[in-house]
Design brief:
Number of domains: 1
Structural class: mainly alpha
Strand order of the largest sheet: 1-2
Shape: globular
Order of helices and strands: HEEHHEEHHHH
Number of helices: 7
Distance between the termini: 28 Å
Length: about 190
């Protein structure tokens, strides 16, 4: 209950405080990346395996047809999009997802459909958590796009190394999370 209340209050305050930044980013995308929406929407897997619509600022070209993993330096990521991603500004619209209850500030990052279907046994406990904007796995792999840019087969490396490690980290979070621990993870995300 405290986590739920914390998420609602802080996301509301965040949206009220950050609306000028949201507006500036929206205008920049419309000017620098015309021909598509400023807000990117995508179905993601949420709590209890239910799909929800996640909101982000668009950082890629329209109709790029790329894969499910992003690699630093990809041509589908625009120059402005690369800057938004670097400073995590593309994720600011997710505050709305937190406010309406689809997401939490801290939890496992919400996967695209398909990855959650691979979870088996105890690993499926992760789906009992509300997905988060940040979390311990997100912090460990905050430079994931750069890691994937250095390997020969980014999709294979993600599927065989990074994703299983994230599942392990998220399962540990499931068993040991606390509101104080969440606050520390938020501070580490903002300051790191």
């Amino acid at each position: 209950m405290m986590k739920w209340l914390f998420d609602r209050v802080v996301s509301f305050v965040g949206l009220c405080f950050l609306w000028p930044v949201l507006l500036v980013v929206w205008v920049l995308i419309r000017v620098k990346m015309p021909g598509g929406p400023a807000i990117f929407t995508q179905k993601r897997v949420g709590k209890d395996g239910k799909l929800f619509t996640m909101y982000k600022f668009r950082s890629m070209t329209v109709g790029h047809g790329g894969g499910s993993v992003s690699v630093a330096g990809e041509s589908r990521i625009t120059p402005l999009g690369a800057k938004l991603r670097r400073y995590k500004l593309d994720e600011l619209p997710e505050l709305w997802n937190v406010l309406i209850g689809d997401m939490s500030f801290v939890g496992p990052r919400p996967d695209v459909p398909g990855y959650a279907d691979q979870l088996e046994g105890e690993d499926r406990l992760i789906l009992k958590l509300r997905p988060g904007i940040t979390g311990p796995a997100s912090l460990k792999y905050r430079n994931e796009e750069e890691i994937l840019a250095k390997v020969d087969d980014p999709q294979k490396y993600n599927d065989e190394v990074i994703y299983p490690d994230k599942v392990r980290i998220n399962l540990d979070y499931y068993y040991h999370h606390s509101l104080w621990g969440d606050v520390k993870l938020i501070i580490e995300t903002v300051c790191g």
